[in-house]
Amino acid sequence: MSTQAPAPTRREQILKEAARLFAERGFHGVGVDEIGAAVGISGPGLYRHFAGKEAMLAELLVGISGRLLTGGKRRAAEATEAGDAPAALLDSLIEGHIDFALDDRPLIILHDRELDRLRDTDRKLVRSLQRQYVELWVEVVRRVYPGLAEADARACVHAVFGLLNSTPHLGRPGALPGREATAALLHRLALGAFGAAHASDGGAHASDALDR
């Protein structure tokens, strides 16, 4: 039986090229005609799929936040069904986020640069999806490290996301180790960050420091 992934739809092709071009040249630096040319259709032909560039940007940013949350929930459900230990689920969540960080770098750049261009409703939806994703991680981290205060666990999750999402700034792809080696390094660093937070839990909590 074939396990080959289905070919991307025209809509998916458009979004992929739009993400690449927006990340390379900025939202306002790219025209509809250029996105169309990248997928082999006329600029006006794009309007059969999207109302305009703003609609593409919204689908890209809302879409990736939704995909991360859905993927995290799926991994949690699979771990529960398999009876996996919390540490195994944390490993799985880290692996899933690393896949995103290595394979969808243009979307990380877009989020950092262009989130404020979304309509209020779309931006609020992105933030809501992201909060749910963070809280899913916080719950798992506290199951692995029960002594870690909730505020500290949440701060650590945000810090790990910052670490993993730094991939667009790690240099040219050819200057990095291979994908497998880079993924393994990021995984060790993420686990090290959580372990360090747990090891320092006997001292002042991060939340206490923020209150001072």
Automatic annotation (TrEMBL):
<dbReference type="GO" id="GO:0045892">
    <property type="term" value="P:negative regulation of DNA-templated transcription"/>
</dbReference>
<dbReference type="InterPro" id="IPR041490">
    <property type="entry name" value="KstR2_TetR_C"/>
</dbReference>
<keyword id="KW-0805">Transcription regulation</keyword>
<dbReference type="InterPro" id="IPR050109">
    <property type="entry name" value="HTH-type_TetR-like_transc_reg"/>
</dbReference>
<keyword id="KW-0238">DNA-binding</keyword>
<dbReference type="InterPro" id="IPR009057">
    <property type="entry name" value="Homeodomain-like_sf"/>
</dbReference>
<dbReference type="GO" id="GO:0000976">
    <property type="term" value="F:transcription cis-regulatory region binding"/>
</dbReference>
<dbReference type="GO" id="GO:0003700">
    <property type="term" value="F:DNA-binding transcription factor activity"/>
</dbReference>
<protein>
    <submittedName>
        <fullName>TetR/AcrR family transcriptional regulator</fullName>
    </submittedName>
</protein>
<dbReference type="Pfam" id="PF00440">
    <property type="entry name" value="TetR_N"/>
</dbReference>
<keyword id="KW-0804">Transcription</keyword>
<dbReference type="InterPro" id="IPR001647">
    <property type="entry name" value="HTH_TetR"/>
</dbReference>
<feature type="domain" description="HTH tetR-type">
    <location>
        <begin position="8"/>
        <end position="68"/>
    </location>
</feature>
<dbReference type="Pfam" id="PF17932">
    <property type="entry name" value="TetR_C_24"/>
</dbReference>
<dbReference type="InterPro" id="IPR036271">
    <property type="entry name" value="Tet_transcr_reg_TetR-rel_C_sf"/>
</dbReference>
<feature type="DNA-binding region" description="H-T-H motif">
    <location>
        <begin position="31"/>
        <end position="50"/>
    </location>
</feature>
